[in-house]
Amino acid sequence: MIQTLQKYPEGDEGYIGFVQESAPQILELRGVTKSFRSGRRAVEVLKGVNLTLRKGEVVALVGPSGAGKTTLLHVVAGLLGADSGKGLFQGRALPLEETCRGRERMSLVFQDPYAALSAHLRIRETVLEPLRIKGDREGESRRVREALTSVRLTPPEAYLDRYPGRLSGGQRQRVAIARAIITHPDLLLADEPTSMLDASAGVGILNLIRRLAAGGMGVLITIHDLATACYVADRLLVLFAGTIVEEGPPGEILSRPRHEVTRQLIETAKMRHREVSIP
Ligand SMILES: Nc1ncnc2c1ncn2[C@@H]1O[C@H](COP(=O)(O)OP(=O)(O)OP(=O)(O)O)[C@@H](O)[C@H]1O
């Protein structure tokens, strides 16, 4: 089943592409560590993580629950400070402390599209929020329409004055992505963006992410399900207990898993998807 999932569907959202090996590197992390306090003890959740990501590349952080995927994504986003390590984003030092500094060209999409959008803001205000925070109000009417069109909420006029309460989970996640991309970030961080959606809405979001990457955006995405990761990513990083234990293109990892955790993820994905497996 994992093999069949790797084939992108035909149709206007389908995408097949390859990241050029020569594409510029936009993100690099070296030796990132992070501990949390648990009573008197410090528990090390990230143990010296290295990663790189190129322009137009989708890199998926996969791993079992508690591996440290969200923690790593939050360190990149500046929502959490690392204890040690170095970061480079677009050729400049990325401060790995709890800060927004150096992160003007990146955006984060959260897992829960129900909690991520304010119930009291119309879609127009929600999507425009990042521009208004920056005080960049030029052409906002055009830009909000463009962002909604990019995420296939069309015609945008049908959505602008609505509240999120009237939208499906998949539509809400599209709004959250429209808000994330209205500033044209170079890097999109997405934390399990499909885990709360039904399968068809989830595939729509994954195709949308592929399209954004085809337009040149780098994407770092956390996913616990290996089949989903293989569908969307150019490269997988298997994270286990705070360490990247295996890395490579999906086809390579599926055909020659080297780490026991990867083999377990493959088995879990096979079990999870067996009911829709196409012989
Ligand atoms: N704020 C925190 N304080 C203390 N411990 C934390 C905190 N955030 C995360 N942890 C712990 O760090 C570890 C890694 O958590 P993290 O959420 O990064 O894992 P994950 O791989 O994203 O898991 P999941 O797939 O279940 O979301 C877990 O053991 C978690 O309990």
Summarize the entry for a quick read.
By secondary structure, this protein is of the alpha/beta class.
Quick tags:
about 280 residues; alpha/beta; disordered N terminus; single chain; four-stranded antiparallel sheet; about 25% strand; 10 helices; six-stranded mixed sheet; binds adenosine-5'-triphosphate
Which of globular, elongated, flat, extended, rod-shaped describes the shape? globular
| Straight-line distance between termini | 8 Å
Order of helices and strands: HEEEHEEEHHHHEHEHEEHH
Content of β-strand: 15-25%
Named once each, the bound ligands are: adenosine-5'-triphosphate
Keywords: ATP-binding, Nucleotide-binding, Transport
InterPro entries: AAA+_ATPase, ABC_transp_ATP-bind, ABC_transporter-like_ATP-bd, ABC_transporter-like_CS, P-loop_NTPase
Protein name: ABC transporter domain-containing protein
Domain ABC transporter: 27-266
Show the helix and strand layout:
Blueprint (H helix, E strand, L loop, with lengths): L1 H4 L19 E14 L2 E14 L3 E5 L6 H9 L6 E6 L2 E2 L12 E4 L13 H12 L5 H11 L6 H4 L8 H13 L5 E5 L7 H16 L3 E6 L2 H7 L2 E6 L2 E6 L1 H6 L4 H14 L6
Parallel strand pairs: 3-8, 3-9, 6-7, 7-8
Antiparallel strand pairs: 1-2, 1-4, 4-5, 9-10
Helix pairs in contact: 3-4, 3-6, 4-6, 6-7
The structure holds adenosine-5'-triphosphate.
Adenosine-5'-triphosphate binds next to α2.
